[in-house]
Amino acid sequence: MKDTEKLQKILARSGHGSRRELESMISEGRIRVDDHVATLGERVTASADIRIDGHQVKVRNAEEQPCRVLVYHKPEGELVTRKDPEGRATVYERMPYVSTARWIAVGRLDINTSGLLLMTTDGELANRLMHPSYEVEREYAVRVFGEVGEAQIQKLLKGVKLEDGVAKFKKIKRRGGEGMNQWFHVILTEGKNREVRRLWESQGFTVSRLMRVRMGDLVLPKGLVQGGWMELQTDQVNYLRRLVELPLIESAPVITDEEQRRQLKQARRGSIRHRKENPVGRGGRRLAANPETAEKEAAAKSNTRSDSISARGHSRNVKRDEERNDSRRDNRKDKHPGQRSEPKGKQPAQGSYRNSDNEEAGKPRNPNGKSSPRSRNSGKGQGKGKPQRQHQGEAKGNTKGSEQGKSGSGKK
Fold it and tell me: Which listed residue (110, 164, 217, 235) is catalytic?
């Protein structure tokens, strides 16, 4: 009889999810084995007909499934989930395509946490690295707002009771800071939900920055930009497997130094493209936990800025129009010193200056080719400096050319 293994273990090894995710699928009745619904703890062989949500999946023996591990530099604003109902960015969108497996995140980092995140195609490796019984160290760089005394540090080292049990830091190291913002490096051996933030909040402090910098002996590579990834070599993969008591692998994708440099360049280009497509994260500004709040704040800032710009533009236009009208009145006084100017605050009728030009230059001549008597005598009476009164029935907005024409004809 062939050797059998637990269903969730063989599916995890084949890259169909972590053991925790697969156990939830089995409990929900989404997995069938041969002709029946699978149950928790059921043992199967690799040759069994296994279906997830009605789709047949392929499983492999341990020696057939390659173990690949990536180091990913997660930026703030990305979720560690395969699909987000609100359409936000996820870390899986950055992963390279694999045809015979799928990537599994080793642990989770919340949306406002950045740093080192391991991704692997081996579900059993991911499960053991996350399990607290293997005590894999996780080191975080954390910026805390407030004055942290020695008494609070000792409490965090001895243990604090949280909602889901007692939690504590294995080590706490001071890393300096400015003012009320103090930097620390803390080490944990388990990965509960938001454990670092909740531990500091239990002592009355607020965590303003959080970044994972190490897992086991693997540190975040220098030069790996946010949003970039690098694949681990065989000896580094075997270190992780040895850490959680898994058999070592003899063959794995060989990554040369040249390929690693090429991966770093690709990561830099991808990070630049990501910042252009997602300008919300520029300037070190972190996304809000509630996306609706972030969108409302961004819309309010945009509306305020557009209103201020339009108000400044309107005031400039009004000032420019006033200066233009004053200049026209001054030019009119210089040309005709004896002519009465328009009262301040009362502007000439629109198009009056253009009409004056038409009366002098653009008015059609008489059929006999001579100008009209009014235009012929319009120059008479000028230069005497006596203001002429307007005739009854004429508009108050008549131009200087028409007034001069009337004065000449009236004197005749």
Answer: 110
DSSP string for 148-159? --HHHHHHHHH-
Question: What one-letter code names the amino acid at 104?
Answer: I
Q: Are strands 114-120 and 160-162 parallel, antiparallel or unpaired?
A: unpaired
Per-residue pLDDT for the chain (412 aa), expressed as one digit of tens each? 457 888 888 887 777 877 778 888 999 999 999 889 999 888 888 788 899 998 888 887 666 667 889 999 999 999 998 888 888 889 998 888 887 778 989 988 999 999 999 999 888 899 899 998 999 999 999 999 988 999 999 999 999 999 888 999 999 999 988 888 999 999 999 888 899 999 999 999 999 999 999 999 999 988 888 988 888 988 999 999 999 999 888 765 556 667 667 767 777 676 666 666 655 443 334 444 455 555 555 566 556 555 555 666 666 777 778 887 877 777 766 666 655 545 555 555 444 444 444 444 444 455 454 444 454 444 444 444 444 554 444 444 444 444 444 444 444 3
Q: Residue 106: what residue type?
A: V
- Catalytic status, residue 110: yes
Distance CA 363, CA 380 (A): 19
| Contacts for 141 with CB less than 8 Å, ≥ 6 apart | 115, 175, 183, 184, 185, 209, 210, 211, 212, 213
**Rounded CA separation 213/221 (Å):** 9
Instruction: Round to whole Å and give the CA distance between 406 and 388.
Output: 9
The DSSP letter of residue 168 is -
Paired tokens of 259: 């390929």
Give dist(CA 273, CA 267) in Å, integer.
Answer: 10
Query: Residue 316: how many CB atoms within 10 A of its CB?
Result: 10
Q: Residue-wise over 130-159: b if at least 16 C-beta within 10 A, else e?
A: beeeeebebbbbbbbbeebeeebbeebeee
3-state secondary structure of 17: coil
Q: What domains, with CATH codes, occur in the chain?
A: 1-65 (3.10.290.10), 66-281 (3.30.2350.10)
Distance CA 26, CA 43 (A): 13
Taking the C-alpha atoms of residue 118 and residue 67, their distance in angstroms, rounded to an integer, is 13
CA–CA dist 286, 112 (Å, integer): 7
